[in-house]
Amino acid sequence: MSKSAPIQLSLPVHLPDDETFQSYHPAGNQQLIESLRLAASGQGERITYLWGNAKSGRTHLLHAACALANEQGRQAFYLPLGIHASMSPAILEGLESLSLICLDDIDEVSRHPIWEEALFDLYNRVLEQDNCCLVVSARAPANGVGFLLPDLVSRLNWGIQYQLHPLSDDAKLAALQQRAKVRGLELSEEVGRFLLTRLARDLRTLFEVLDRLDKASMRAQRKLTIPFIKQTLHL
Amino acid sequence: MSKSAPIQLSLPVHLPDDETFQSYHPAGNQQLIESLRLAASGQGERITYLWGNAKSGRTHLLHAACALANEQGRQAFYLPLGIHASMSPAILEGLESLSLICLDDIDEVSRHPIWEEALFDLYNRVLEQDNCCLVVSARAPANGVGFLLPDLVSRLNWGIQYQLHPLSDDAKLAALQQRAKVRGLELSEEVGRFLLTRLARDLRTLFEVLDRLDKASMRAQRKLTIPFIKQTLHL
Protein backbone atom coordinates (compact mmCIF):
# COMPACT_ATOMS: atom_id res chain seq x y z
CA MET A 1 0.00 0.00 0.00
CA SER A 2 1.43 3.35 -0.95
CA LYS A 3 2.07 5.78 1.89
CA SER A 4 0.99 8.78 -0.12
CA ALA A 5 -1.04 11.59 1.38
CA PRO A 6 -4.50 10.52 2.53
CA ILE A 7 -7.28 11.12 0.08
CA GLN A 8 -9.18 14.28 0.90
CA LEU A 9 -12.80 14.58 0.02
CA SER A 10 -15.05 17.43 0.75
CA LEU A 11 -18.53 17.04 2.15
CA PRO A 12 -20.93 19.82 1.40
CA VAL A 13 -22.42 20.49 4.78
CA HIS A 14 -25.50 22.56 4.70
CA LEU A 15 -26.80 24.76 7.47
CA PRO A 16 -30.52 24.59 6.80
CA ASP A 17 -31.85 28.15 6.50
CA ASP A 18 -34.89 27.27 8.57
CA GLU A 19 -32.96 26.06 11.63
CA THR A 20 -32.71 29.36 13.41
CA PHE A 21 -33.49 30.58 16.91
CA GLN A 22 -36.82 31.91 15.60
CA SER A 23 -37.88 28.46 14.48
CA TYR A 24 -36.78 26.73 17.69
CA HIS A 25 -39.46 25.75 20.19
CA PRO A 26 -38.01 27.00 23.45
CA ALA A 27 -40.14 24.96 25.92
CA GLY A 28 -38.17 25.57 29.09
CA ASN A 29 -34.86 26.30 27.37
CA GLN A 30 -35.15 30.10 27.22
CA GLN A 31 -32.08 30.79 29.33
CA LEU A 32 -29.93 28.46 27.22
CA ILE A 33 -31.17 30.07 24.00
CA GLU A 34 -30.41 33.55 25.29
CA SER A 35 -26.95 32.39 26.25
CA LEU A 36 -26.33 30.91 22.79
CA ARG A 37 -27.59 34.08 21.10
CA LEU A 38 -25.05 36.06 23.10
CA ALA A 39 -22.26 33.62 22.23
CA ALA A 40 -23.15 33.87 18.54
CA SER A 41 -23.11 37.66 18.83
CA GLY A 42 -19.65 37.69 20.40
CA GLN A 43 -20.85 38.73 23.83
CA GLY A 44 -21.43 35.42 25.55
CA GLU A 45 -19.60 32.99 27.76
CA ARG A 46 -16.35 31.76 26.29
CA ILE A 47 -17.37 28.10 26.64
CA THR A 48 -20.88 26.64 26.58
CA TYR A 49 -21.58 22.97 27.21
CA LEU A 50 -24.97 21.83 26.06
CA TRP A 51 -26.30 18.38 26.79
CA GLY A 52 -29.48 16.45 26.19
CA ASN A 53 -30.91 13.28 24.68
CA ALA A 54 -30.57 12.39 21.03
CA LYS A 55 -33.20 14.18 18.93
CA SER A 56 -33.75 16.82 21.62
CA GLY A 57 -32.76 19.62 19.25
CA ARG A 58 -29.06 20.09 19.96
CA THR A 59 -28.10 20.20 16.30
CA HIS A 60 -30.84 22.71 15.52
CA LEU A 61 -29.46 25.03 18.21
CA LEU A 62 -25.88 24.73 16.98
CA HIS A 63 -27.04 25.38 13.41
CA ALA A 64 -28.99 28.39 14.69
CA ALA A 65 -25.97 29.81 16.53
CA CYS A 66 -23.81 29.51 13.39
CA ALA A 67 -26.54 31.09 11.25
CA LEU A 68 -26.86 34.06 13.63
CA ALA A 69 -23.09 34.57 13.77
CA ASN A 70 -22.88 34.45 9.96
CA GLU A 71 -25.80 36.86 9.65
CA GLN A 72 -23.86 39.32 11.79
CA GLY A 73 -20.74 38.91 9.69
CA ARG A 74 -18.89 36.68 12.15
CA GLN A 75 -17.07 33.57 11.03
CA ALA A 76 -18.55 30.39 12.46
CA PHE A 77 -17.71 26.73 12.01
CA TYR A 78 -19.96 23.75 12.69
CA LEU A 79 -18.42 20.31 13.10
CA PRO A 80 -20.34 17.10 13.85
CA LEU A 81 -17.98 14.73 15.67
CA GLY A 82 -20.12 11.72 14.81
CA ILE A 83 -17.94 11.37 11.73
CA HIS A 84 -14.60 11.65 13.50
CA ALA A 85 -13.49 8.36 11.95
CA SER A 86 -13.39 10.16 8.60
CA MET A 87 -11.54 13.19 9.89
CA SER A 88 -8.17 13.90 11.39
CA PRO A 89 -8.01 15.66 14.81
CA ALA A 90 -5.87 18.21 12.95
CA ILE A 91 -9.17 19.69 11.76
CA LEU A 92 -9.37 21.43 15.16
CA GLU A 93 -6.10 23.32 14.61
CA GLY A 94 -6.46 27.03 14.10
CA LEU A 95 -10.23 27.10 14.69
CA GLU A 96 -9.66 29.52 17.58
CA SER A 97 -9.17 32.30 15.05
CA LEU A 98 -12.91 32.12 14.27
CA SER A 99 -15.62 33.93 16.23
CA LEU A 100 -17.71 30.87 16.93
CA ILE A 101 -16.90 27.16 16.97
CA CYS A 102 -19.77 24.69 17.37
CA LEU A 103 -18.77 21.08 18.01
CA ASP A 104 -21.71 18.69 17.93
CA ASP A 105 -21.72 15.30 19.70
CA ILE A 106 -18.34 15.51 21.42
CA ASP A 107 -19.19 12.36 23.39
CA GLU A 108 -18.50 10.51 20.12
CA VAL A 109 -14.75 10.94 20.67
CA SER A 110 -14.72 9.87 24.31
CA ARG A 111 -12.23 7.13 25.18
CA HIS A 112 -10.23 8.13 22.14
CA PRO A 113 -7.19 9.75 23.77
CA ILE A 114 -5.85 11.47 20.65
CA TRP A 115 -9.12 13.22 19.93
CA GLU A 116 -9.62 14.04 23.59
CA GLU A 117 -6.21 15.66 23.69
CA ALA A 118 -6.94 17.65 20.54
CA LEU A 119 -10.17 18.91 22.17
CA PHE A 120 -8.28 19.81 25.34
CA ASP A 121 -5.71 21.77 23.33
CA LEU A 122 -8.47 23.59 21.44
CA TYR A 123 -10.10 24.57 24.74
CA ASN A 124 -6.85 26.06 25.97
CA ARG A 125 -6.30 27.99 22.77
CA VAL A 126 -9.87 29.32 22.85
CA LEU A 127 -9.38 30.52 26.42
CA GLU A 128 -6.30 32.48 25.33
CA GLN A 129 -8.27 34.35 22.67
CA ASP A 130 -10.39 37.41 23.28
CA ASN A 131 -12.99 36.95 20.59
CA CYS A 132 -13.73 33.29 20.19
CA CYS A 133 -16.67 31.38 21.68
CA LEU A 134 -16.86 27.62 21.76
CA VAL A 135 -20.15 25.75 22.04
CA VAL A 136 -20.07 21.98 22.44
CA SER A 137 -22.91 19.49 22.63
CA ALA A 138 -23.06 16.00 24.09
CA ARG A 139 -25.64 13.51 25.23
CA ALA A 140 -24.65 13.71 28.93
CA PRO A 141 -22.99 16.15 31.33
CA ALA A 142 -19.19 16.33 31.08
CA ASN A 143 -18.72 14.14 34.15
CA GLY A 144 -20.97 11.43 32.75
CA VAL A 145 -19.63 10.99 29.23
CA GLY A 146 -16.73 8.72 30.12
CA PHE A 147 -13.88 10.92 28.93
CA LEU A 148 -10.44 9.53 29.75
CA LEU A 149 -8.57 12.77 30.39
CA PRO A 150 -9.37 14.30 33.79
CA ASP A 151 -7.97 17.63 32.55
CA LEU A 152 -10.45 17.67 29.67
CA VAL A 153 -13.37 17.03 32.02
CA SER A 154 -12.25 19.82 34.32
CA ARG A 155 -11.99 22.24 31.36
CA LEU A 156 -15.44 21.19 30.17
CA ASN A 157 -16.78 21.90 33.64
CA TRP A 158 -15.33 25.44 33.64
CA GLY A 159 -17.77 26.60 31.02
CA ILE A 160 -21.43 27.23 31.50
CA GLN A 161 -23.45 24.00 31.28
CA TYR A 162 -27.04 23.65 30.16
CA GLN A 163 -29.34 20.69 29.92
CA LEU A 164 -31.66 20.79 26.98
CA HIS A 165 -35.20 19.91 28.03
CA PRO A 166 -36.89 17.79 25.38
CA LEU A 167 -40.35 18.58 24.09
CA SER A 168 -43.16 16.30 25.23
CA ASP A 169 -45.28 14.60 22.58
CA ASP A 170 -48.11 16.99 23.39
CA ALA A 171 -45.80 19.95 22.84
CA LYS A 172 -44.62 18.47 19.53
CA LEU A 173 -48.22 17.99 18.47
CA ALA A 174 -49.00 21.59 19.38
CA ALA A 175 -45.92 22.79 17.45
CA LEU A 176 -46.99 20.78 14.39
CA GLN A 177 -50.55 22.05 14.57
CA GLN A 178 -49.35 25.64 14.94
CA ARG A 179 -47.01 25.30 11.95
CA ALA A 180 -49.85 23.78 9.91
CA LYS A 181 -52.18 26.61 10.90
CA VAL A 182 -49.70 29.27 9.74
CA ARG A 183 -49.74 27.56 6.35
CA GLY A 184 -53.52 27.46 6.24
CA LEU A 185 -53.59 23.70 6.69
CA GLU A 186 -55.86 21.91 9.08
CA LEU A 187 -54.05 19.18 11.01
CA SER A 188 -56.38 17.24 13.28
CA GLU A 189 -55.10 15.79 16.52
CA GLU A 190 -55.64 12.29 15.17
CA VAL A 191 -53.55 12.96 12.06
CA GLY A 192 -50.87 14.75 14.09
CA ARG A 193 -50.58 11.79 16.44
CA PHE A 194 -50.37 9.44 13.45
CA LEU A 195 -47.34 11.36 12.18
CA LEU A 196 -45.73 11.37 15.64
CA THR A 197 -46.21 7.61 15.90
CA ARG A 198 -44.95 6.66 12.46
CA LEU A 199 -42.10 9.06 11.77
CA ALA A 200 -38.85 9.90 13.52
CA ARG A 201 -39.99 12.03 16.44
CA ASP A 202 -37.66 14.99 16.03
CA LEU A 203 -39.25 18.25 14.96
CA ARG A 204 -36.86 18.57 12.02
CA THR A 205 -38.26 15.46 10.37
CA LEU A 206 -41.86 16.26 11.33
CA PHE A 207 -41.65 19.78 9.89
CA GLU A 208 -40.01 18.63 6.68
CA VAL A 209 -42.77 16.09 6.20
CA LEU A 210 -45.42 18.70 6.95
CA ASP A 211 -43.91 20.92 4.24
CA ARG A 212 -44.15 18.09 1.76
CA LEU A 213 -47.73 17.27 2.80
CA ASP A 214 -48.65 20.94 2.47
CA LYS A 215 -47.47 21.02 -1.14
CA ALA A 216 -49.12 17.69 -1.97
CA SER A 217 -52.45 18.72 -0.46
CA MET A 218 -52.42 21.96 -2.43
CA ARG A 219 -51.67 20.16 -5.69
CA ALA A 220 -54.29 17.50 -5.07
CA GLN A 221 -56.81 19.84 -3.42
CA ARG A 222 -57.15 17.27 -0.68
CA LYS A 223 -57.37 17.55 3.09
CA LEU A 224 -54.77 16.00 5.36
CA THR A 225 -56.32 12.65 6.14
CA ILE A 226 -54.47 9.51 7.14
CA PRO A 227 -55.16 7.76 3.78
CA PHE A 228 -53.95 10.84 1.88
CA ILE A 229 -50.78 10.95 4.01
CA LYS A 230 -50.10 7.24 3.50
CA GLN A 231 -50.48 7.68 -0.22
CA THR A 232 -48.30 10.79 -0.39
CA LEU A 233 -45.50 9.31 1.70
CA HIS A 234 -45.79 5.83 0.13
CA LEU A 235 -46.31 4.28 3.58
CA MET B 1 -35.14 35.72 9.04
CA SER B 2 -34.02 36.08 5.47
CA LYS B 3 -34.97 33.28 3.10
CA SER B 4 -31.69 33.43 1.25
CA ALA B 5 -29.87 30.32 0.07
CA PRO B 6 -28.75 28.03 2.90
CA ILE B 7 -25.20 28.51 4.06
CA GLN B 8 -22.90 25.93 2.53
CA LEU B 9 -19.85 24.82 4.41
CA SER B 10 -17.40 22.24 3.38
CA LEU B 11 -16.10 19.55 5.70
CA PRO B 12 -12.73 18.13 4.81
CA VAL B 13 -13.38 14.45 5.03
CA HIS B 14 -10.31 12.36 5.10
CA LEU B 15 -9.97 8.77 4.01
CA PRO B 16 -7.19 7.58 6.31
CA ASP B 17 -4.44 6.06 4.18
CA ASP B 18 -4.06 3.19 6.61
CA GLU B 19 -7.66 2.01 6.43
CA THR B 20 -7.28 -0.40 3.56
CA PHE B 21 -8.19 -4.02 2.96
CA GLN B 22 -4.59 -4.98 3.81
CA SER B 23 -4.91 -3.47 7.26
CA TYR B 24 -8.33 -5.01 7.99
CA HIS B 25 -8.46 -8.01 10.28
CA PRO B 26 -10.69 -10.39 8.36
CA ALA B 27 -11.69 -12.77 11.21
CA GLY B 28 -14.52 -14.60 9.51
CA ASN B 29 -15.37 -11.84 7.05
CA GLN B 30 -13.27 -13.08 4.11
CA GLN B 31 -16.19 -13.54 1.75
CA LEU B 32 -17.50 -10.07 2.45
CA ILE B 33 -14.06 -8.54 1.91
CA GLU B 34 -13.64 -10.34 -1.39
CA SER B 35 -17.05 -9.09 -2.46
CA LEU B 36 -16.16 -5.49 -1.56
CA ARG B 37 -12.84 -5.73 -3.38
CA LEU B 38 -14.72 -6.78 -6.49
CA ALA B 39 -17.23 -3.96 -6.10
CA ALA B 40 -14.38 -1.44 -5.72
CA SER B 41 -12.76 -2.89 -8.85
CA GLY B 42 -15.93 -2.51 -10.87
CA GLN B 43 -16.63 -6.24 -11.11
CA GLY B 44 -18.82 -6.84 -8.10
CA GLU B 45 -22.47 -7.01 -7.23
CA ARG B 46 -24.38 -3.87 -8.06
CA ILE B 47 -25.66 -3.46 -4.50
CA THR B 48 -24.02 -4.62 -1.28
CA TYR B 49 -25.69 -4.30 2.13
CA LEU B 50 -23.30 -4.61 5.03
CA TRP B 51 -24.51 -4.73 8.59
CA GLY B 52 -22.98 -5.15 12.02
CA ASN B 53 -22.68 -3.59 15.46
CA ALA B 54 -21.23 -0.16 16.06
CA LYS B 55 -17.42 -0.26 16.14
CA SER B 56 -17.35 -3.56 14.25
CA GLY B 57 -15.28 -2.06 11.45
CA ARG B 58 -17.93 -1.03 8.92
CA THR B 59 -16.39 2.40 8.36
CA HIS B 60 -12.93 0.91 7.87
CA LEU B 61 -14.28 -1.37 5.14
CA LEU B 62 -16.08 1.46 3.36
CA HIS B 63 -12.94 3.60 3.54
CA ALA B 64 -10.95 0.64 2.19
CA ALA B 65 -13.31 0.15 -0.74
CA CYS B 66 -13.08 3.84 -1.68
CA ALA B 67 -9.29 3.77 -1.36
CA LEU B 68 -9.02 0.72 -3.64
CA ALA B 69 -11.34 2.27 -6.24
CA ASN B 70 -9.34 5.51 -6.18
CA GLU B 71 -6.08 3.59 -6.47
CA GLN B 72 -7.41 1.98 -9.63
CA GLY B 73 -8.46 5.33 -11.06
CA ARG B 74 -12.18 4.91 -10.33
CA GLN B 75 -14.22 7.69 -8.83
CA ALA B 76 -15.61 6.85 -5.41
CA PHE B 77 -17.66 8.79 -2.89
CA TYR B 78 -17.99 8.10 0.82
CA LEU B 79 -20.90 9.61 2.73
CA PRO B 80 -21.61 9.10 6.44
CA LEU B 81 -25.35 9.51 6.99
CA GLY B 82 -24.89 10.15 10.70
CA ILE B 83 -24.73 13.83 9.80
CA HIS B 84 -27.83 13.86 7.60
CA ALA B 85 -29.24 16.72 9.69
CA SER B 86 -26.53 18.95 8.22
CA MET B 87 -27.04 17.80 4.65
CA SER B 88 -29.79 17.95 2.10
CA PRO B 89 -31.02 14.68 0.50
CA ALA B 90 -30.13 16.43 -2.77
CA ILE B 91 -26.55 15.35 -2.06
CA LEU B 92 -27.55 11.92 -3.44
CA GLU B 93 -28.48 13.33 -6.83
CA GLY B 94 -26.16 12.38 -9.66
CA LEU B 95 -23.99 10.06 -7.56
CA GLU B 96 -24.86 7.20 -9.92
CA SER B 97 -22.38 8.62 -12.43
CA LEU B 98 -19.55 7.52 -10.12
CA SER B 99 -18.01 4.04 -10.07
CA LEU B 100 -18.51 3.43 -6.36
CA ILE B 101 -20.85 4.98 -3.80
CA CYS B 102 -20.38 4.06 -0.15
CA LEU B 103 -23.14 5.19 2.21
CA ASP B 104 -22.29 4.62 5.87
CA ASP B 105 -24.93 4.24 8.61
CA ILE B 106 -28.05 4.38 6.45
CA ASP B 107 -30.14 3.38 9.48
CA GLU B 108 -29.60 6.97 10.65
CA VAL B 109 -32.19 8.17 8.14
CA SER B 110 -34.82 5.57 8.93
CA ARG B 111 -38.30 6.91 9.72
CA HIS B 112 -37.39 10.03 7.79
CA PRO B 113 -39.56 9.62 4.67
CA ILE B 114 -37.84 12.27 2.57
CA TRP B 115 -34.40 10.75 3.03
CA GLU B 116 -35.78 7.25 2.59
CA GLU B 117 -37.33 8.28 -0.70
CA ALA B 118 -34.07 9.87 -1.84
CA LEU B 119 -32.27 6.60 -1.04
CA PHE B 120 -34.89 4.61 -2.93
CA ASP B 121 -34.52 6.87 -5.97
CA LEU B 122 -30.73 6.51 -5.82
CA TYR B 123 -31.08 2.72 -5.76
CA ASN B 124 -33.21 2.78 -8.85
CA ARG B 125 -30.80 5.07 -10.69
CA VAL B 126 -27.85 2.85 -9.73
CA LEU B 127 -29.65 -0.21 -11.07
CA GLU B 128 -30.13 1.54 -14.40
CA GLN B 129 -26.40 2.17 -14.76
CA ASP B 130 -23.89 -0.33 -16.04
CA ASN B 131 -20.83 0.76 -14.13
CA CYS B 132 -21.86 1.92 -10.69
CA CYS B 133 -21.68 -0.11 -7.48
CA LEU B 134 -23.43 0.94 -4.30
CA VAL B 135 -22.30 -0.26 -0.88
CA VAL B 136 -24.40 0.66 2.14
CA SER B 137 -23.82 -0.06 5.81
CA ALA B 138 -26.24 -0.21 8.72
CA ARG B 139 -26.39 -1.60 12.22
CA ALA B 140 -29.07 -4.19 11.43
CA PRO B 141 -30.39 -6.13 8.44
CA ALA B 142 -32.67 -4.18 6.11
CA ASN B 143 -35.80 -5.76 7.59
CA GLY B 144 -34.81 -4.81 11.12
CA VAL B 145 -33.86 -1.16 10.76
CA GLY B 146 -37.38 0.24 10.93
CA PHE B 147 -37.54 1.86 7.50
CA LEU B 148 -40.95 3.27 6.64
CA LEU B 149 -41.02 2.59 2.92
CA PRO B 150 -41.73 -1.06 2.05
CA ASP B 151 -40.32 -0.43 -1.44
CA LEU B 152 -37.02 0.73 0.01
CA VAL B 153 -36.74 -2.39 2.18
CA SER B 154 -37.46 -4.62 -0.80
CA ARG B 155 -34.78 -2.85 -2.87
CA LEU B 156 -32.30 -3.20 -0.01
CA ASN B 157 -33.08 -6.91 0.12
CA TRP B 158 -32.35 -7.34 -3.59
CA GLY B 159 -28.65 -6.74 -3.12
CA ILE B 160 -26.20 -9.10 -1.52
CA GLN B 161 -26.29 -8.86 2.28
CA TYR B 162 -23.41 -9.52 4.65
CA GLN B 163 -23.20 -9.49 8.40
CA LEU B 164 -19.90 -8.22 9.72
CA HIS B 165 -18.62 -10.51 12.46
CA PRO B 166 -16.99 -8.49 15.21
CA LEU B 167 -13.58 -9.33 16.58
CA SER B 168 -13.49 -10.88 20.04
CA ASP B 169 -11.37 -9.18 22.70
CA ASP B 170 -8.80 -11.96 22.37
CA ALA B 171 -8.59 -11.36 18.63
CA LYS B 172 -8.19 -7.62 19.21
CA LEU B 173 -5.42 -8.32 21.70
CA ALA B 174 -3.69 -10.59 19.19
CA ALA B 175 -4.03 -7.93 16.47
CA LEU B 176 -2.54 -5.29 18.78
CA GLN B 177 0.33 -7.55 19.79
CA GLN B 178 1.06 -8.42 16.17
CA ARG B 179 1.06 -4.77 15.14
CA ALA B 180 3.38 -3.96 18.06
CA LYS B 181 5.71 -6.80 17.08
CA VAL B 182 6.01 -5.54 13.50
CA ARG B 183 7.16 -2.23 14.98
CA GLY B 184 9.70 -3.90 17.23
CA LEU B 185 7.67 -3.11 20.34
CA GLU B 186 6.93 -5.59 23.07
CA LEU B 187 3.32 -5.40 24.19
CA SER B 188 2.62 -7.74 27.10
CA GLU B 189 -0.79 -9.31 27.50
CA GLU B 190 -1.33 -7.33 30.70
CA VAL B 191 -0.59 -4.02 28.99
CA GLY B 192 -2.67 -4.95 25.97
CA ARG B 193 -5.64 -5.78 28.17
CA PHE B 194 -5.19 -2.49 30.02
CA LEU B 195 -5.55 -0.63 26.70
CA LEU B 196 -8.58 -2.70 25.72
CA THR B 197 -10.24 -1.91 29.05
CA ARG B 198 -9.55 1.80 29.17
CA LEU B 199 -9.87 2.95 25.58
CA ALA B 200 -12.62 2.80 22.99
CA ARG B 201 -12.54 -0.81 21.85
CA ASP B 202 -12.43 -0.30 18.11
CA LEU B 203 -9.20 -1.24 16.38
CA ARG B 204 -8.94 2.19 14.78
CA THR B 205 -8.54 3.87 18.17
CA LEU B 206 -6.34 1.11 19.56
CA PHE B 207 -3.96 1.25 16.60
CA GLU B 208 -3.75 5.03 16.65
CA VAL B 209 -2.86 4.92 20.32
CA LEU B 210 -0.28 2.19 19.70
CA ASP B 211 1.35 4.42 17.06
CA ARG B 212 1.57 7.24 19.57
CA LEU B 213 2.97 4.94 22.27
CA ASP B 214 5.51 3.60 19.80
CA LYS B 215 6.85 7.10 19.14
CA ALA B 216 6.83 8.04 22.82
CA SER B 217 8.65 4.89 23.86
CA MET B 218 11.33 5.48 21.24
CA ARG B 219 11.83 9.07 22.33
CA ALA B 220 11.95 8.18 26.01
CA GLN B 221 13.78 4.88 25.53
CA ARG B 222 11.19 3.28 27.77
CA LYS B 223 9.31 0.02 27.60
CA LEU B 224 5.53 -0.11 27.33
CA THR B 225 4.50 -0.39 30.95
CA ILE B 226 1.20 0.69 32.44
CA PRO B 227 2.76 3.65 34.33
CA PHE B 228 4.52 4.80 31.13
CA ILE B 229 1.25 4.54 29.19
CA LYS B 230 -0.69 6.47 31.82
CA GLN B 231 1.93 9.19 31.75
CA THR B 232 2.06 9.37 27.95
CA LEU B 233 -1.71 9.47 27.52
CA HIS B 234 -2.28 11.74 30.56
CA LEU B 235 -4.66 9.18 32.05
From TrEMBL, chains A, B:
Hda lid domain location: 169-233
Superkingdom, natural source: Bacteria
GO BP annotation list: DNA replication initiation; negative regulation of DNA-templated DNA replication initiation
Pfam families cross-referenced by the UniProt entry: Bac_DnaA, Hda_lid
Gene3D superfamilies: 1.10.8.60, P-loop containing nucleotide triphosphate hydrolases (3.40.50.300)
InterPro entries membership: DnaA_dom, Hda, Hda_lid, P-loop_NTPase
Domain (Chromosomal replication initiator protein DnaA ATPAse): residue spans on this chain: 48-161
Database matches in PANTHER family: CHROMOSOMAL REPLICATION INITIATOR PROTEIN DNAA, DNAA REGULATORY INACTIVATOR HDA
Protein name: Regulatory inactivation of DnaA Hda protein
